[in-house]
């Protein structure tokens, strides 16, 4: 992340604390985002899209239903991220919106890098083979790859709105296109 982007993100976090939620914590939000990412990615992998109603926006859910039905099993398996397999997390962008009706939204894009042992061909573009673990002898190798995912979380801060974050964008490059 560039120093300018880092400063801008921290400035937006300060605005969120000052004007929307005095108890907002970057650390707590990141912890919750990682947990949500892990749960949602596993449900996507298992095709349990009906369980995503409360977590994912209706528009994103409709697109996911179409895309997931077309994915081969090994690509679906690669979507799943155990919380312990998340290697790195960072904010991509933070935005504050006001619409014409006075409704206030905050949107935070999170980027995740996670390890997954899905059985994908070696030539899958957009992913990186990180290492191979050898258990026992040379004939038993377990491959792990590093994948990326972008999830955008949005929350309405208008008075009286539910204090829930909703996922409004899901991207798993080269897997879920």
From TrEMBL:
Gene name as annotated: Maip1
Taxonomic superkingdom: Eukaryota
Organism expressing this protein natively: Nycticryphes semicollaris
Name of the protein in its database record: MAIP1 protein
GO CC terms of this entry: mitochondrial inner membrane
GO molecular function, one term: ribosome binding
Gene Ontology BP terms: protein insertion into mitochondrial inner membrane from matrix
């Amino acid at each position: 992340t560039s120093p300018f982007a880092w400063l801008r993100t921290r400035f937006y976090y300060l605005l969120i604390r000052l004007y929307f939620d005095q108890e907002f914590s970057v650390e707590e939000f990141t912890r919750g985002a990682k947990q949500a990412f892990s749960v949602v990615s596993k449900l996507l992998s298992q095709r349990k899209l009906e369980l995503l109603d409360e977590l994912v926006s209706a528009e994103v859910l409709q697109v996911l239903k179409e895309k997931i039905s077309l994915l081969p099993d090994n690509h679906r398996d690669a979507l799943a991220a155990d919380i312990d397999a998340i290697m790195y997390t960072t904010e991509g962008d933070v935005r504050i919106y006001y619409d014409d009706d006075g409704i206030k939204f905050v949107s935070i894009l999170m980027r995740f890098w996670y390890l997954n042992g899905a059985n994908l061909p070696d030539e899958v573009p957009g992913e990186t083979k990180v290492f191979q673990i050898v258990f026992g002898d040379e004939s038993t190798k377990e491959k792990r790859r590093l994948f990326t995912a972008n999830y955008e979380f949005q929350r309405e801060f208008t008075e009286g709105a539910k204090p829930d974050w909703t996922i409004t964008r899901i991207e798993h490059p080269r897997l879920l296109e």
